[in-house]
Backbone:
C-alpha cells in the first residue's frame, strides 16, 4: 500500500508539474507577443490618433500663417524705417557746377565782399559764383561763397588760418557742387 501511495503521489506531482509548465509557457508567449486589444479599443485609439494628427497639422498651418503675417509686417517696418533713414540722411540736393582750381588765402584784416569776416572751414572766394552760394567741394566739404578776389573764372580761393597753410595748400583741382535748398 505504501508503494501505491508513493506511486500516486509521484503521479500527482508529475501531473501538477506538467500543468504548471504548460500554463507558464502560455503566459510567457502572451507577454512576448504583447497584449491584444479588443477591436473596439483598437478602433477608438486609431480614431483618436487621426484626430490628434489632424489637430497637429491644423496648428502647424496656423503657426505658418502667423509666421508669414509677422514676416510681412517686419518687412514693412524695415522698409519704412530704411526709407525714413534714407530721407533723413540723403542730405541736401546738389548739382555739379564743374571742376575748379583750388587755391588758398589768409585774412587781410578786412571784411569779405559779403560784409562778414572770413571763417576757416566756411569761407571761400570766387568770382564766377554769386555771393552767398552754398557749395560742396569734393574731398573738402561745404563752404559759402562770401568773398571775391583777383582770380579768374574757374578758380576758388579757400580761406585758411595761416600763411604756412596757404603755401602748403598750393594749387589743386576738385569737383564743385552747388547745394540747393
Residues:
Amino acid at each position: 500500500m505504501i508503494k501505491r501511495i508513493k506511486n500516486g503521489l509521484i503521479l500527482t506531482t508529475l501531473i501538477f508539474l506538467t500543468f504548471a509548465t504548460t500554463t507558464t509557457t502560455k503566459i510567457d508567449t502572451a507577454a512576448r507577443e504583447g497584449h491584444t486589444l479588443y477591436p473596439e479599443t483598437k478602433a477608438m485609439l486609431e480614431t483618436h490618433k487621426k484626430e490628434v494628427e489632424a489637430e497637429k497639422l491644423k496648428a502647424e498651418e496656423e503657426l505658418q500663417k502667423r509666421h508669414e503675417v509677422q514676416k510681412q509686417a517686419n518687412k514693412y517696418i524695415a522698409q519704412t524705417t530704411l526709407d525714413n533713414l534714407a530721407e533723413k540722411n540723403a542730405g541736401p540736393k546738389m548739382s555739379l557746377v564743374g571742376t575748379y582750381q583750388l587755391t588758398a588765402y589768409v585774412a587781410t584784416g578786412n571784411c569779405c565782399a559779403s560784409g562778414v569776416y572770413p571763417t576757416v572751414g566756411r569761407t571761400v572766394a570766387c568770382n564766377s559764383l554769386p555771393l552767398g552760394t552754398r557749395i560742396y567741394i569734393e574731398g573738402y566739404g561745404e563752404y559759402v561763397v562770401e568773398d571775391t578776389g583777383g582770380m579768374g573764372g574757374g578758380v576758388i580761393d579757400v580761406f585758411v588760418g595761416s600763411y604756412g597753410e596757404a603755401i602748403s595748400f598750393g594749387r589743386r583741382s576738385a569737383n564743385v557742387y552747388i547745394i540747393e535748398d
The mean pLDDT is 81. The longest helix spans residues 39-89. The first strand starts at residue 93 and ends at 105. Residues 24 and 52 are 39 Å apart (CA to CA).
